[in-house]
Amino acid sequence: MPLTHSLLSEVNHIKYCIEGDRQAQSALYAMYSPKMFVVCMRYSKTREEAEEALQEGFLKVFQFLHQFREEGSLEGWIRKIMINCALQRLRGKSRLTPVVNIETYNEHFVMDDHAESKISSKELLQMVMSLPPAYKLVFNLYVFDGYKHREIAEMLGISEGTSKSNLSDARALLQKQLIKKHVIAK
Predict the structure, then answer these.
(1) Burial group, residue 28, by CB count within 10 angstroms (0-12, 13-18, 19+)
(2) What is the signed CA dihedral for 66, 71, 73, 78, rounded to 10 degrees?
(3) pTM of the model
């Protein structure tokens, strides 16, 4: 076996990981854990919860790596596992019901031409993280992870209409927060 796994093809790297090679597993973890931590953070309330989901996710990655069929990217396959782990943790902790009556926010908003220069991506991510849990989950799954409403409904055990409604409500709440920061003109 070669001394360095960084020169290995992805297929060989996966093979060594499946065989239990700790060096290969460590390299895979180092390669994907930063991106996957960000994914886990989007579905967690605290850094500690995200770290737990990340660790649990990688345990599953190594446990089921032999099932990866190269029908898509390894990163995408790992991302799905991380999202599922984070969602399972949330399901066990709380009910995912909206806590905001959004009907009072049916106003139309227009983006300011210079909005992107007035808010950082960190501030925007903090706004998303502050959404009620059901809204945050649907927003993350739809906007960041590219799931369709049908898939979201199946994953969360809600109707497709509820998924669409939660996304709409999440967007309205984010727009309201942006107005408070004077980023969007009414």
Answers:
(1) buried
(2) -40
(3) 0.70
Contact (CB, 8 A) for 132 and 100: yes
Q: What angle do CA 132, 48, 84 make, to 5 degrees?
A: 65
Q: Which letter does DSSP use for residue 101 in this model?
A: -
Per-residue pLDDT of the chain (186 residues; tens, 9 = 90+): 444 444 457 788 899 999 999 999 999 999 999 999 999 999 888 899 999 999 999 999 999 999 998 888 999 999 999 999 998 887 776 544 444 444 443 333 334 444 444 677 778 888 888 899 889 999 999 998 999 999 999 988 899 999 999 999 999 999 998 888 765 555
Residue 70 three-state SS:
coil
Q: How far is CA 95 from CA 87, 99, 133, 174, in A?
A: 12, 11, 9, 22
C-alpha torsion angle, residues 109, 112, 116, 117 (rounded to 10): -140
CB 172 within 8 Å of CB 102: yes
